[in-house]
Amino acid sequence: MLVTDILSALPLVRGTQDPLFRQLYAQIKDAILRGTLGAGMQLPPTRELARLLSVSRQTVLNAYDQLSAEGYLHGAVGKGTFISDHLAQAAPGPHAARTTQTTQAPMRPLSARGDAYAGAMESVGFHQGKLRPFRVSMPSLDLFPFDVWSRLEGRRWRHPDYHMGYSDPAGYAPLRELLCVYLRASRGVNCTPEQVVITSGSQQGLYLLSQLLLAPGDEVWIESPGYQGASAPLFAAGATVRTVPVTADGMDVAYGIANYPGASMVLATPSHQLPLGVTMSLQRRLELLRWAAARRAWIIEDDYDSEYRYTGPPLASLQSLDRAGCVLYVGTLSKVLFPGLRLGYIVAPPALVEPVVRAKAVMDRHTAIVPQMVLADFMADGHFGRHIRRTREAYGERRVALLDAIASRLGGQVAVGPSDAGLDLALHFLRGHDEATVVARALEQGIETRALAYYANRMATPACAFAPGLLLGFSSLTSAQIRHGVEVLAKVLKAPS
What we know:
40% of the residues lie in helices and 13% in strands. The protein is α/β, with parallel strands linked by helices. In the C-terminal section; belongs to the class-I pyridoxal-phosphate-dependent aminotransferase family.
């Protein structure tokens, strides 16, 4: 096929935002890379190609100039324009398949580590679509003072300072100081500002610690059932993940010690367990700390929504009881403020601060600085404390609305789990309903629920049995939405299976 025939058939679309010369440039470049146009071929003169394509000569000139600047073409006055000779080895040949984004397999297999990374979050569900009852673990965005946040952010952009350059990997110093004061007052965390490391959400904190502290094959305890997103970094690190059952007193520490005494790490949510909602008893906390100190094992305390306790003040953290320096406290601001903020933190034992900060620098140099600065202003001006008090009161009212609706419409169908804390509530079936069927039927009617079986981590061993049921989120819903959602669930549960 002649070069003119190839070029005259190039598809150019008029009336789009993409200029014609950019389209022509891209089409010729693609033909060269695919080998349709080979090295040394002479392209037609600009006037001739413009006539063939019914475009202006300037369009062709601009396309040729761009291709020449990038090394695809070369030419000389009086000789013509040619495809560069050095592309002969780069072109895959005239019959090579065109590479597209729909390619089914990579050029070569992923590494074993790459497989672990790519598969670690495979079964983790993500929020999609508009908000519906009963979306889990979702704060109420309608209660957040976005006008205040916008004003504070605008002030930072209007008056940039030296902090707008590369920043400390550990985070914005004023924010670390304010978080330290807050955590000491509200959660009893023993820390200095130097021990606080700002992360891009608690997920990054868990990943960073898994990579830093675990060798492939190290045993780690996790709660079962438990949040799979928190355990995913452990799998990515190549750890041997062991499930430990959860009872009314929290993680069964005695079970873990008896079955996996050589573990190197424990991932726990002692203040409010997801999804069952239980709190680890003081006896088990002390038992876990004694074992970890003797074993020289790390404990990662994932304290994801402890601000929201409705029957008394928030409980003191496990870290506040630690005397051996074995607890790493990980928190998030996604549940208190809004998930899109992607700010979390680690409170590391003094001996680990420097390694954690250095590892953080390897990962992403530092977390975005402007959100940190705005949050520091938000806290310093008192908005943070007011927002927590306001949302705690609102969520408490929504919790009562959910409990009342369940008592009224689902009595005899479900048993209610602990409800004194958090953004969600666990229900356990009393009449042998199939979780998957209930979830599917509810979704057909616009109700979004999460089966408790979802939290059974099938990648870990062994599987732990627990009563079937649902997890319902209530914090982002109005009382009317809650009552409607329970009404729909009542009809689903009463329908023949």
